[in-house]
């Protein structure tokens, strides 16, 4: 399977970008988020069939080095929606609502709402808390739609007989992990989300709006309608490197229980190919729903004064490194696609390799709309990259993850280790630190540009001593060696 190719391409670009002309009508925002989606988009060099994301890329700045701050839903979404890092929010798990520890923190939709916008949510934007009361009602102008649910319940209400028996023995919630049924798109959450987003767009298009559309895919289960499975051949997904990186410490891994169940038994080659196939079917299903929303925006008459951003909350493993799912500090889990289409769109696609982070989304979207920046932002405004995509606005991107990955489900309720990671222009360096002392017990160093699959831990290799010193300095600045403070 192809990994995204990192390169810089400037076909045509304005020399200077202004977020909004002084006398222009207010800038709207279409804010689209996917779940568990690594950069498997055709414009990143992936074999994924994503014509609608390619259509968005044609008028966007595409970020080749965009990273999540933690590769699991709640910490990542809480971080990007507040512009604050997990350590600042003190949110590192899926069970703690960010408001419990940050009751007065502004969010992106709340900031727009406070500045006169109609702020609407369709789908999963904040973490999918399983009661309506645990969304974030204060952030929105109207009640959220399908923001809370369980991925394992995303199945047709009256399913037809399966077109073909699935091989994977695993289940996901109340249904099979893999499923290919002859059903309409609206049989699943994302079809419903797209339909509602089109309706809401018509409702708000005559007012300044911030419309957040949160899709549930390609998150498991792998159950896109059969027509999306049929876009691919199963043989496309049989070849991949499932080995752990040479020299990597055990603490860097997990048992993949989200996908493989509590036994953690490795799938057979046929089962692995089916699950990988299903992940790509989910991607094409997602892409089709995004296309419906983009069509509605084009038809609204306000596309020329709307900023569009598309990204994912974090990436995903589908067998690489022996892992299935997220919750690691590897590139597969931390890197995400990100498209920024400013007001009116670009006249030609652009790409940047500047290290960027999801914590940058808040200041960027606010600046692109001409609003004042709120205080306390820990990210940076990425808009200058439109004028100069070769200018690195920051030296590195940072991610982290605890061990156990889901420590909140353990009796101790406290992690025993925290993995903190820095991605520079040339390497990824990770320290796994004892939470009681703050001192590292294991280290990883990957030459990510020459070894994008991270197949060999080169910590201790003299050939990378300069890169290691730089990475250690950057990591210490962001994550001082102190005990974990829950």
Provide the descriptors you would attach to this structure in a database record:
2 domains; alpha/beta; disordered N terminus; Arylsulfatase, C-terminal domain; 486 residues; Alkaline Phosphatase, subunit A; four-stranded antiparallel beta sheet; single chain; seven-stranded mixed beta sheet
Description:
With 486 residues, the chain is α/β, with parallel strands linked by helices. It has two domains: 357 residues, Alkaline Phosphatase, subunit A; 80 residues, Arylsulfatase, C-terminal domain. The protein is 24% helix and 17% strand. The chain is built from 13 helices and 18 strands. The strands form five sheets. A seven-stranded mixed beta sheet has the order 4-7-1-8-12-2-13, sandwiched between helices. Helix 6 packs parallel to helix 9. The two termini are 39 Å apart.
Oligomer: single chain
- The total tally of domains equals 2
In total, the number of strands is 18
Spatial strand arrangement across the major sheet: 4-7-1-8-12-2-13
Alpha-beta classification: alpha/beta
CATH topology of the largest domain: Alkaline Phosphatase, subunit A
- Give the amount of beta strand, in percent: 15-25%
User: What is the rounded Rg?
Assistant: 21 Å
Quote the average pLDDT: 94
Tell me roughly what share of residues is in helical segments. Answer: 10-25%
Major β-sheet profile: 7 strands, mixed
CATH superfamily placement of the largest domain: Alkaline Phosphatase, subunit A
Number of helices: 13
CATH class of the largest domain: Alpha Beta
Shape assignment: globular
Poorly predicted regions: 1-16
């Amino acid at each position: 399977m192809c990994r995204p190719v990192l390169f810089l391409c400037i076909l045509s670009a304005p020399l200077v970008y202004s977020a909004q002309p002084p006398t222009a009508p207010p800038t709207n925002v279409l804010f689209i988020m996917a779940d568990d989606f690594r950069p498997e988009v055709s414009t990143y060099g992936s074999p994924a069939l994503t014509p609608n994301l390619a259509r968005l890329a044609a008028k966007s700045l595409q970020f080749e080095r965009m990273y999540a701050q933690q590769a699991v839903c709640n910490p990542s979404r809480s971080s990007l929606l507040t512009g604050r890092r997990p350590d600042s929010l003190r949110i590192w798990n899926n069970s703690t609502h960010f408001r419990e520890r940050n009751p007065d923190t502004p969010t992106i939709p709340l900031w727009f709402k406070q500045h006169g916008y109609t702020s609407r949510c369709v789908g999963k934007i904040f973490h999918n808390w399983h009661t309506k009361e645990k969304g974030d009602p204060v952030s929105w102008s109207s009640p959220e739609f399908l923001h809370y649910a369980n991925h394992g319940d995303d199945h047709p209400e009256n399913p037809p007989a399966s077109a073909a028996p699935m091989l994977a023995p695993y289940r996901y919630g109340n249904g099979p992990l893999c499923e290919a049924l002859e059903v309409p798109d609206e049989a699943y959450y994302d079809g419903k989300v797209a339909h509602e987003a089109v309706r809401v767009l018509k409702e708000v298009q005559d007012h300044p709006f911030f419309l957040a559309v949160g899709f549930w895919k390609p998150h498991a289960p792998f159950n896109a309608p059969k027509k999306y499975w049929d876009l691919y051949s199963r043989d496309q997904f049989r070849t991949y490197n499932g080995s752990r990186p040479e020299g990597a410490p055990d603490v860097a891994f997990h048992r993949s229980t989200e996908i493989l169940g509590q036994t953690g038994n490795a799938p057979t080659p046929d089962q692995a190919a089916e699950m990988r196939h299903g992940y790509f079917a989910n991607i094409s299903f997602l892409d089709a729903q995004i296309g419906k929303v983009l069509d509605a925006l084009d038809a609204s008459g306000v596309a020329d004064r709307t900023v569009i951003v598309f990204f994912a909350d974090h990436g995903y493993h589908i067998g690489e490194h022996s892992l299935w799912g997220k919750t690691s500090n590897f590139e597969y889990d931390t890197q995400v696609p990100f498209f920024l289409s400013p007001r009116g769109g670009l006249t030609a696609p652009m790409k940047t390799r500047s290290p960027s982070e999801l914590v940058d989304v808040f200041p960027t979207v606010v600046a692109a709309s001409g609003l004042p920046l709120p205080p306390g932002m820990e990210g940076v405004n990425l808009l200058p990259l439109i004028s100069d995509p070769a200018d690195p606005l920051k030296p590195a991107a940072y991610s982290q993850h605890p061990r156990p990955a889901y420590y909140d489900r353990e009796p101790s309720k406290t992690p025993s280790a925290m993995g903190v990671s820095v991605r520079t222009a040339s390497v990824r360096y990770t320290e796994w630190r004892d939470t009681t002392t703050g001192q590292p017990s294991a280290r990883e160093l990957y030459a990510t540009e020459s070894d994008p699959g991270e197949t060999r831990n080169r910590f201790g290799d003299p050939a990378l001593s300069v890169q290691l010193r730089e990475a250690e300095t950057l990591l210490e600045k962001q994550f001082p060696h102190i005990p974990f403070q829950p």
